[in-house]
Design a protein that fits this description.
The structure is a homodimer. Chain A has about 475 residues and is an alpha+beta fold. In chain A, about 35% of the residues lie in helices and about 20% in strands. In chain A, helix 10 packs across helix 13. The two termini of chain A are about 20 Å apart. The mean pLDDT of chain A is about 95. Chains A and B meet through strand 9, helix 8, helix 9 and helix 17 of A and strand 9, helix 8, helix 9 and helix 17 of B.
Chain lengths: ~475, ~475
């Protein structure tokens, strides 16, 4: 194994220069562990090509020498998706040198960027031509376009513009045999068989290496309105969202927050205050935007909320009157996880169900968890319009050292069972990676799992693409 | 072969009743030829299950007996995609009895329907709850949901709402091993590996049988405006579209029509007249809609067109002042093919290029074809905003008996070469079926083609799903 790896590294260096293969342990080390420090791997080198042709050559060489490759962008996977195996059998293939903007067109609302471009740079490139790339998430300063595509990333703006899948107009990728798939024309209509682009989105680098993408841009935000409403139950919150959607397509954020999450934030996060005078069992944070001066989202949101109060859908509501007030509302939402951590150990579950099922599911799942693990406190908040829950279970009175490693895992399986029984997904946003392979195998429909494996084996018969991830 | 087919037919009859296997030649015969009469096949029976479980059982039985199945909906394929092989080796699997509406929700904008539902029924079901299923095409009275999904159908409303792919929220399908893939929850966020739903869209029944789908609905049309504008060249037409898109998202139709197509319609189709006083080298037909009374699309379109005349993007324009005038404008567009047929033999090419490339491509392709085949007249019209051309070549002075069968085929290959060189697609809407298998093999990137074949062989190792289509 070592000898073939050395031969491969030498060939890459000879053909593509010293920067194309990093072997100094001090330079390799930081990329062997995932950003949360949960997964640790081993690799002798990071291969770092600067062009699609170099990626193609490396994949071909790796195929000849049977050396597995672990593609890596910003190394921000939540499921160990970019961490190499521990036995040193694989090399890392970093896309970070391939970070160029190839073309951008405001007129056609499309940017063609390489896989290693960092999301924040993409935001800046789009802004520079008066447009917006609407997907965003916490790791925007590190995560790369290739990783976002390979994990079909979501985030907070999915309600209006969809996940990464719907923002990809076309892909360029190196397939496991080293051939280059060129889909950057971004054809709106193309029916030449199975869509390789769609297959590569969310494939976690196990079917090939995404090297570039044609991405959709949308109008820049001219102004926004952020509001807060108290409602009686999740069903009312969903009815409110559907009511708004029937009247406008300007709603970009719609976050559900239970009373106990709000209470935790107010207790643990300095400088926060309840946006409304009274207490409400459930709250929603709503954001509406405009892309042009002619239309005022504040007026829109005020009028929508006033109507909803009249219809008894909403108990009380307010709309931020300044940008700093708007930020304060978002700060409450964004501080929930931190407040929970301050409160003691908890588990976090990245799950989704059908949007229509979400109100019932989150109440029933909370009750089921608290019944099965008396003393725990389950709470769900998050993207109501996406059916995507941040379902967290706090240890509560069961808290003890090592709770997360022991009962936490039991609770994970319990929640995964509940969401599977409800027809939902055990991985809404993060993918499978290393972390959820066991749960995927345990819970996926056997026929679906067999199909995923058949696809993997067909396209990557030697198992060289991101080994140990997903079904590899 | 015959014996195993008989055994299979008997088993299906015994288990699912006489209606589940049609063998009377008079009943089978109409489904052995495609609707245009170009492809002829042979089959001893039409299997006609009434439920997903029956489809699953039939696929398992067919697997055991190694009998290929040709799934069929409305039999409206343009490329022989639903016609069985001529040697009688396969049976037809009709989905037409599975035509139920399972659920529909105006609130959640989703309908779950079985594969055999006819598109027009789906339109009616959506309208009955105050919603719209926005995809439509000429065969709407016959084509079925399963076929629309399996061909990733397009049509005239793609500009705003996308092709079938973007209207599918989730699928139920029977995979080649008989297992049932259940994706009808329609999860908005789901990252459990490769998307089988997305793989089945456009797979032409070669990877399994779509049995039901969760489909997105959109607001019903409250009123529409249809306008006509004369422009100097296709580049101006595209600039006009981009100008409008930057100002509104209400544009649903944007069709490009060259002067010679308009002239043919005016000459051959009774009752048609030029919508404008003068002649223009190129014309565009524009449709804008509203979904609520508060907003008048006629005013919007008038104001957009007035601005465009001021900006010199448009030479002259009008907006229909009545629904009958609006229909008269669409009639011009919809009569182009008929007018061309009246004028003599012609070829039709279902091709696409990137939207931004379309103006240049259509001018250059026209010139190239007319240079290579002197005397022919090439013209392109169609969905400018989709990069989807109806590129037609009329025989002109080269017309002679059998022109279509001889020179027509040469021209097809010539046009396919041009579109491939431009990074476009030889099948924008219709799929590959039987008709374009040779061209796909000749022109697809070898690595892509190998990947398509590997997927096909992995999921359907015995080649029993729609044999002879796509890469099967």
């Amino acid at each position: 194994m070592s000898d073939t790896q050395l031969t491969l590294i030498d060939e890459v260096r000879t053909r593509f220069g010293p920067r194309a293969a990093i072997t100094d342990p001090a330079d390799v080390e930081p990329w062997l562990t995932d950003w949360r420090g949960r997964f640790h791997g081993s690799a002798r080198a990071i291969l770092s090509p600067s062009s699609t042709e170099e990626v193609s050559a490396i994949v071909k060489l790796a195929g000849e020498h049977r050396v597995p490759l672990v593609p890596q962008g910003g190394n921000t996977s939540m499921v160990g998706g970019a961490t190499p195996p521990g036995d040193g059998s694989a090399l890392i293939l970093s896309l970070r040198r391939m970070n160029r903007l190839r073309t951008i067109s405001a007129q056609h609302n499309v940017a063609i960027v390489e896989a290693g471009m960092i999301l924040q740079q993409l935001h800046e490139q789009a802004a520079a031509v008066g447009r917006r790339f609407p997907l965003t998430l916490g790791s925007r300063g590190s995560c790369t376009v290739g990783g976002l595509i390979s994990t079909n990333a979501g985030g907070t703006q999915v309600l209006r513009f969809g996940t990464m899948r719907s923002l990809v107009a076309g892909l360029e990728a190196v397939l496991p045999d080293g051939s280059i798939h060129s889909g950057l024309s971004g054809l709106k209509k193309d029916n030449r068989g199975y869509s390789l682009d769609q297959l590569l989105v969310g494939a976690e680098g196990t079917l090939g290496i995404v090297t570039a993408a044609a991405l959709r841009l949308v109008p820049a935000v001219y102004s926004r309105a952020v509001g807060w409403a108290g409602v009686g139950d999740p069903q009312a919150a969903l009815a409110l969202l559907r009511d708004f959607e029937a009247k406008t397509d300007r709603i970009e954020g719609f976050e559900l927050i239970p009373a106990d999450s709000l209470e935790l934030v107010l207790r643990h996060i300095p400088g926060t205050r309840n946006p409304l005078d009274g207490e409400h069992k459930w709250n929603v944070l709503i954001e509406a935007t405009s892309s042009a001066p002619g239309f005022d989202p504040v007026e829109l949101l005020q009028s929508l909320l006033a109507g909803a109060i009249g219809d008894k859908l909403v108990e009380d509501a307010m709309v931020a009157s300044s940008e700093s007030q708007a930020e304060a509302l978002w700060r409450i939402r964004d501080s929930i996880s931190e407040a929970e951590r301050t409160d003691g150990p908890s588990t976090a579950h990245d799950i989704s169900v059908a949007v229509a099922d979400m109100p019932t599911f989150l109440l029933e799942a909370k009750a089921a968890v608290e019944r099965a693990f008396p003393g725990t406190i389950a709470s769900a908040f998050g993207h109501l319009g996406d059916g995507n829950l941040h379902f967290h279970v706090r240890a509560g009175s069961r808290s003890m050292p090592g709770w997360n490693q022991r009962e936490g895992h039991e609770i994970e399986r319990f929640v995964d069972d509940l969401v599977t029984a409800a027809g939902g997904s055990i991985s809404a946003e993060h993918g499978i990676g290393q972390m959820k392979r066991g749960e995927l195998e345990r819970l996926a429909a056997p026929g679906d799992l067999a199909a995923l494996r058949a696809i993997k084996n067909a396209l990557d018969p030697h198992g060289l693409m991101n080994p140990g991830k997903l079904v590899g």
